[in-house]
Amino acid sequence: MLSIKPFTSYNIVDILNKPLYFIESDQLNVCNLISPDDLSFFQEYYNDYYTEIVYYEYERPLCPKCNISMNSNGSRPAKPNKWEGIRKKQYICPECGKTHFTSLENFIKRYSNYTRPICEKSLEYESITYLSYQKKVEIIKLENGIQLNRQTVYYHESTYDTSFITQKEENLQKLLEETKIEPSGIYHYDEEFLHENGIKTVRLAIIDAVTNLIINDQVIYQEDFDQDFVEIFLKYSLEGLPKKVLITDGHLMYPPIIERICIKHQLCIFHIIKYHNDKSYKKMNKIKRRIQTLERKIEENEERITKLKEYSKGMAYRPSKKDKTRIRKIKKRKKLMKDNTKYKNELKQKRKELNEQERINERIANIYDTDTQKAAIRRFRTIYHQLDQFDDNTQKYLKNLNKKFDKTIEYHKNPQIPRTNNKIEGYFKITLPRHIKRIYRTREGLIRWIRLQKIRWMERNVLFNEQNNLQNHDNNQKIDATS
User: Fold this and answer.
1) What's the fold here for domain 186-268+420-434?
2) Does the model's pTM come out above 0.85?
3) By CB count within 10 A, which of 47, 57, 374, 395 is most buried?
4) First to last CA, the chain
5) What is the per-residue pLDDT across 206-222, written as a single tens digit (0 to 9) for each?
């Protein structure tokens, strides 16, 4: 289908009465309402009937000086999208002689050789995934048959990125307003640490835990990142929005900030358990390495003992004093057996320590593996009253957890409150994966990428989910009606 620009100054009757293109004297005359991107249509179906294409003005132009209709006066070569065999019709004023060439500025920016869709191709690709400029060039050639160079693609991105992204954001905002998706009051907050051409930067983000809306997403230099900036960011982001719960990790700077902005605090359960396990795993790994060493030593000693026994096989009598070789082997075998006894006792003790540490980790994790808040409190109080039975690391952890335990069980009060901060962690990994988060060299490129990925996130995780929910709701109503 031909891509005809929306008609603003033309009546639909005129469009129906006037041809958009016609063939005359081996020339295909195409009006300037048809985009150069659609010329492949004529090449496919009319290639045998013309030798060149001539663009003409759909409405005969008026002279800007004399305000009279200009006459056709030849044509000149043009290369929109680098197409060969294309010309633009020239017009001349019969009074003052002023000339005018057919304008394609509806499709091609002034002083450019390519239509806007071609110029925006690389931005469309970037809105889906990261590609090098060389790969973008190759895909454009494969898809459109147009050979660009990398510098041209870079220039197009720098020139069209603002208008392209702004238009997408405005369209997205209209769709959100139509679907009436609003913030729920339950939010995730976290930071992501980046590198911008070697300079350390911080990305702060807050998203809705229920609707997946991106409330705010900002990149700053790490030297500007402190507790005061986080408080300003959260206050500004949540201003005028419902405030129920904010989910964060366990950083010490969050509680006083969240208390001042008057919102309840849910600590990420994953991070709460991880703070204990990180230290306990170090201890457990050390025990496991010692167990492996002991098992290896015991196995090696058993092999050596077996070989020494084979030497004395069939010799039931006691060795004589002259048989020094046999006496030496017997002594060596007894020493190895004694060492193995010691190793086995230590191995038994280490396995017991390992099982005890695993049991402690499981008990701490089970605090939050409950269906009710009352059960979680009961499990925590039970393990807290047995504080003296645990190692120093666990004792210190439980004492700190006791001070903020109420902030870890808010999710029991509302089923919409998530237990963890996994959603915003996933948002960071999807919109700025690890393999590309350190490759951007300019702030402009980094911000452009984040804006494009935010649009993609909203389309996939906000609008698409809402459409599915509405469809499921309609299907359920139909089922209820039929039943």
Assistant:
1) Nucleotidyltransferase; domain 5 (3.30.420)
2) no
3) 57
4) 45
5) 999 999 999 999 999 99
